[in-house]
Amino acid sequence: MMFRGNFYISPDFRSNVLGKQLLVFVQNPFLVADITEFSVEAKQTFRWVAAAKIQLGLIDFQENVIMRQVLCDCTPETFWSKEGSPAHFPTLHRLAVQILTMSGSTYH
Question: Which domain of life is it from (predicted)?
Answer without folding.
Answer: Eukaryota
